[in-house]
Amino acid sequence: xxxxxxxxxxxxxxxxxxxxxxxxxxxxxxxxxxxxxxxxxxxxxxxxxxxxxxxxxxxxxxxxxxxxxxxxxxxxxxxxxxxxxxxxxxxxxxxxxxxxxxxxxxxxxxxxxxxxxxxxxxxxxxxxxxxxxxxxxxxxxxxxxxxxxxxxxxxxxxxxxxxxxxxxxxxxxxxxxxxxxxxxxxxxxxxxxxxxxxxxxxxxxxxxxxxxxxxxxxxxxxxxxxxxxxxxxxxxxxxxxxxxxxxxxxxxxxxxxxxxxxxxxxxxxxxxxxxxxxxxxxx
Amino acid sequence: xxxxxxxxxxxxxxxxxxxxxxxxxxxxxxxxxxxxxxxxxxxxxxxxxxxxxxxxxxxxxxxxxxxxxxxxxxxxxxxxxxxxxxxxxxxxxxxxxxxxxxxxxxxxxxxxxxxxxxxxxxxxxxxxxxxxxxxxxxxxxxxxxxxxxxxxxxxxxxxxxxxxxxxxxxxxxxxxxxxxxxxxxxxxxxxxxxxxxxxxxxxxxxxxxxxxxxxxxxxxxxxxxxxxxxxxxxxxxxxxxxxxxxxxxxxxxxxxxxxxxxxxxxxxxxxxxxxxxxxxxxxxxxxxxxxxxxxxxxxxxxxxxxxxxxxxxxxxxxxxxxxxxxxxxxxxxxxxxx
Lengths: 283, 338
What we know:
The structure holds two protein chains of two kinds. By secondary structure, chain A is an alpha/beta fold. Chain A has helices at residues 41-48, 70-76, 92-103, 109-115, 131-142, 161-176, 188-194, 212-219, 246-254, 269-277, and strands at residues 3-12, 15-25, 30-34, 56-61, 64-65, 77-80, 149-153, 180-185, 197-202, 205-210, 223-230, 233-240, 259-265. Helix content of chain A is 34%, strand content 30%. In chain A, helix 8 (212-219) crosses helix 10. Chain B is an alpha/beta fold. Helix content of chain B is 66%, strand content 7%. Chain B is built from 14 helices and five strands. A five-stranded mixed beta sheet of chain B has the order 2-1-3-4-5, sandwiched between helices. In chain B, helix 9 packs across helix 10.
């Protein structure tokens, strides 16, 4: 196991942010950590990356205890924060070079900028960049030490669809290289597309943990949608695939000669989440 | 501890300092203040000591040919003594069988040294005396420091404080902008961050202090550097505590104004000699500026000032222990970034 958490717990005063959660991530896997704002996603990342110490339970990253072996862990991980935290009065290149120095990394900063497509902003101060551009620079910074494990906290949050899609492609590229990725997001589509496993976190607790497919199959409703033309109008019938009398009803509808379309409808992760928690994933 | 990481962090801080007008203003302030004070008090470009001479005209003309002193001839001993007493001249030379060199109580130590050496040379040239001239030297009027010198402690404490202020504002800025979070998930440890910022603040404070002493012709002894180092170390400790405890830059500046009054109290007391001088002894910065004044202006040596150094070292140890306690508490709890 590359990441292993056992009974991780953390409170801010009386507010229990993370409540005895356990999970593990294998090498080369992406674990999507899904939950609404304030559900404990970022606190979990902070514990796993040694920014705060777990108050109960513990975790290992690359076999090292996050409470004891921080120095070794920090050499091998890359972290992309949710909040923009670049040095604003330094250029993109200066920011990356500074962090390369801290890691004593031999990675060529120019090559990295080229790879993440930020070369054209190389000499611009980061305070002059848009949110999307800064997000890319932060993503590049998380790769500066060629890490074995990437912690990405809402990496596409607030980005335009094109920038978000480019970041997702880069995440998948890192996965293909065998990197293990811990991805927190509130975007169910993103989690569905990128993750090997998805953990739903709500009010500090993991309420479900499985592959996206399994979660949707186990917990989501699957429907059959049949659209029938009646003159100039259409009638749409929706039948739950698991309903006891669905086969009979479907057979009867399909005998109709005026069928316009037939679709199966899968559950989304959001529907699964709502079913489990009674609340929406949106921010 | 990795020296490379500490140096990288310091280099980054230098880059950021030079790009922020607030930081630049802080760094330039004591240097500009020194230049303005020196210009206002007429010491810029007119730094020759002044000498009143009575007696042998040969000696007087020999002294007048010297570039290092400004000489004025007097027609009576009484008029010369009166002018020196009033502080109008740094010294008066009465040339007779037993020459007398009278120093004004307000003359500076380096000026006295120049005057003594120049007059000794002139007398030796005129009378062919042995290598070591012995003549009567006296100090007229009560010894007191001229205004220009009395302002030096203010500037010295200010430059040391700027070293501390740079540390605190840099730490607060990193916390506010969350850049410290990014640094602390690299192999750089909180201790290395603190070391880097402390070294930068100490270096900056020392450099500013040294510039101020040079501009005032007062960097004349290794002992001065010793007191400058330990005095700046005290403000570095204060800067570390402020950097961790204060929530934001506005908070820092607001509290600094109050705290500055306390830190600058010894300088204030030196500036106004009518205030009881013992009051300053209750403030640690007294043991930073007072020995520097004693060394540079009164020729004090190690035997005269060692006890003040010992008190300053104790103050340094106490403030650094307090700083490390505050830092440790933050680091083991929420760490310095939260």
